[in-house]
Amino acid sequence: MPTLPDFRLETYFAQWEFSARYHLTASDAQTHSLSELLALADDDGRERWESLALGYTETRGLPALREEIAATYTNASADDVLCFAGAEEAIYLAMRTLLEPTDHLVVLTPNYQAAETVPLAVCEVTGVALQADSGWALDVDAVERALRPNTRMVSVNFPNNPTGAVPTPEAWQALVQLCDDRGITLFSDEVYRGLELTRSPLPQATDLSGTVLSLNVMSKAYGLPGLRIGWIVCRDRDVLDKLERAKHYTTICNSATSEVLALIALRAREHLLDRNRRIVAENLPVFTDFFARYPDLFEFTPPDGGCVCFPRYLGADGVETMCSELVEQAGVLLLPSSIYSSALTETPTDRFRVGVGRRDPSEALAAWSDWLEKRR
After folding, report:
1. CATH number of 306's domain
2. Which residues are CB-contacts of 301 (< 8 A; sequence separation ≥ 6)?
3. Are residues 235 and 283 in the same domain?
4. Where in the sequence is the domain holding 20, given as residue range(s)?
5. Which of 197, 201, 211 is nearest to 152 (CA)?
6. Shared domain check, 365 and 226
7. Do 371 and 332 touch, CB atoms closer than 8 A?
8. pLDDT tens digits for 22-37?
9. Is 279:357 a contact under the CB 8 Å cutoff?
10. For the segment 284-343, what is each residue's pLDDT rounded down to a tens digit?
């Protein structure tokens, strides 16, 4: 198989994520400390934590954890759940295991880079762009036109990273039905589900179809990326068996400590999601006011869901220069649109990703504002 290209986002973060003073492009919601998370534990969770033996764990995941994950779906049981070391392992193994060189995949753009580059290392891939001029709308007709007789999979991500877009329920149902009618596997990245603000959460794809793969993780909406616990839910047991065997060649099993902490967190999921939705809701007026002060430089639309969005930069110097000079001179980290460039579709070159899920962005925005004022 071809060598995978550099993961642009991670390469950029390797340089700046932990050295920049202000991380204003974070893709995860506000996290908890270990003590805060343990304070949310029920009696069973605390007993599991205090008596935990640090041995190997089950490849598919702690049974109690898989039960709790299944409880977040309408039509899934614990046997439909396979846990992974975060979402990236799940994406990588699903694309590498379920696709053949003679297959074809359709992916929506912009998207998390692995959703495009991993399948490109296996088979032919066609990109279908979200409609930027229509609020990053999902064009199901465009997806249908991109299908081929050998299309094996359609890969989507909603709420979308980096745009924050959430399709209408009608478009979402139409996409699931399209894939079902054509016998195509829908791979649905749902890692931001639960942080919707302007629209109700979409039905999780696996609740609508027995062949769909629904991806989720503790990292994004729950704000616990340090746990490195993700999962795929699929009611096709043969698919899960294939993925389990593939996992034997990567992580084999998950961290025992992380599984128990994820169990504690999921049992307190309403608390975690309510808190993170409040943080996003409190932050959005702050960001709206900031961008409104510079109408000659920015166009900003709040996200429909999730805790990232993709504003437009109007400055003559261009978004790449703005982002690089901002982090070098003021210590404020953003992600320029080049991080989300696609080899398959035309990608906007004047956008940048902002994270709105962390507490107290005012200091970072003040530093950004001071930097902008000095450049006028």
Report:
1. 3.90.1150.10
2. 135, 309, 311
3. no
4. 8-33+270-375
5. 211
6. no
7. yes
8. 999 999 999 999 999 9
9. yes
10. 999 999 999 999 999 999 999 999 999 999 999 999 999 999 999 999 999 999 999 999
